[in-house]
Amino acid sequence: MTKALISIENLGFAYDGDHHLVLDGLTLELPEASITAVLGPNGAGKTTLIHILLGLLKPYKGSVHLAGRNLAHFTRRELSRMIAFVPQSEYTAFEFSVLEYVLMGRAPHMGILQTPTREDLDQTLEHLEALGLNHLATRSVRELSGGERQLVLIARALAQEPKLLLLDEPTTHLDLSNKGRILATLSALANQGVTVIFTTHDPEAAASTAAYLVLMRQGKIVSSGALERVLTAERLSETYGIPVRVVQVDGHPVVLLNNHNR
Amino acid sequence: MESRTDLTRLSARRARSWGMLLAGLLLTFTLSIFIGRYPQPYWMPLRLLGEDELARQLVLSLRLPRILAALMMGASLAAAGNVLQMVFSNPIVGPGILGVSQGAAFGAALAILTLSAAPLAVELSALLFAFLGLGLSFLIARQLRYGGWVLRLVLSGIAVSALFAAGVGLIKYVADPLTQLPEITFWLLGGLWSVTWREVLLMLPFVTVGLVIVILMRWRINLLSLSEQTAFSLGSQTGRERTLLLVSTVAVVASVTAIGGVIGWVGLIIPHMARRLFGASAQRTVPASILLGGLFVVFCDTLARAILPGEIPLGVITSLLGAAFFILLMMTTGPRLKP
Q1: CATH of B65-332 among 1.10.3470.10, 3.30.420.40, 3.90.1150.10, 3.55.40.20
Q2: What is the ipTM of this complex?
Q3: Per-residue pLDDT tens for B167-181?
Q4: Is A95 in Cβ contact with B280 (below 8 Å)?
């Protein structure tokens, strides 16, 4: 692996007043400027892990280091300049325009009493253009399709100019073409030096995009490391509790369900 | 670069809206000085200000403070409504949330029952109980064991409002039906008939401090309307920023309610109109709400004192016009088709 941006040591997490550990004994190194997929069934603790990396939840035990410094020692502003987050979906009560919405990504670089400057506006427009969204700038975010909305959320995250981009189930509700578009965008970002971590319960999304894979089940890591090493039929079967096959197509792994009744 | 031409067109349209809004406010303010029931119904000629000492006194010591109070009241309620709607991510929240309006009503009714109907006693008691309502809502919300902070605040605000409303009911029941009850009822309907420069000075510090904080934070408020996780990831200190905004807006509402009584609909309807004109961003809707709210209440209060020989309660007029606007707004809102 290349230099680690994130190192997690013996991480455990439990919700308040509950002794049941949602995450238990996670130890991981996540490399810089690459894509890591966190794959596992629903309830594996993937989203909890993302929320801890974001700083939103505090570890119950163990530690997370970002660029060699304990996450707990960053201020809120420092974190928001390093780490951006794309939620699975986001409800907005108000009809913000796409431009206003993406402009909010500039907040980490602005004072609490500041309003956006001309530069903030120009930068935001550049991010919209880079993702092919400039024609939507004055449209309401509530009128967008699922794929457009996800891209707008990514654009807002990029306006933060983060080193680390965390995405929670970015392709879950999308059709095939939008899924392809989002995953291609993530690959392009990694090539530009952004470290990308995304959760998914879809092995296909992980296999087609990620260089590194973390397999999780019931709050524990089943296996982690380079994709080709971790994405095996045996480990996937263990993670999901059903038999699967992994075949190679043009040198890429593809996951197939073993349906014995067919 | 179609996005840039779109944007240029949009900002030109908004610049026109700002111009019209400012002109409308100035016009309403100026006209309202000359509208009233002296020397004859509806209109006082300009030359009278030079000739008639009584007219000059009337304008300087009654109309002017009252118009300023109406301006502050409208600006405050509308700004507070706008901020609270953003902070609670809920476009149908009004400034009466968190026990403030009902607290003020209870305080006023209690003063009329036990002290006197002297304006200062009623105002100070209303102010005290408005803040007590806010404090109680916060205290109870902290003790609740479930839900996020916003939900807990809303729930405890509803409960505190209900408690004070029950108290007002009780006071009305025991009040003297010939002397105290009409006084209480009239206060509850809201109005600015008792306003002098003293009331203006009493409101001024709260309104100034509260509105300045809200105006300075106008862009930042947007972040709080997003989900908790998103606001957090954008670097917002959500707990602190929400509390600062809540306390500022509610202090403003408490002070104007203590002077003018419970004035409905301004805080709900004006932010909607502001969003119609200037889009969703609080960067524009907060100043727009302040101007629009001021314009609306000055207009309504001028009607309240000029239409009939006797005063019409201001709250009745704002509710009438506010609800009518709201219906109109709902009927004309919907997905607009693009050409």
Answers
A1: 1.10.3470.10
A2: 0.90
A3: 999 999 999 999 899
A4: yes
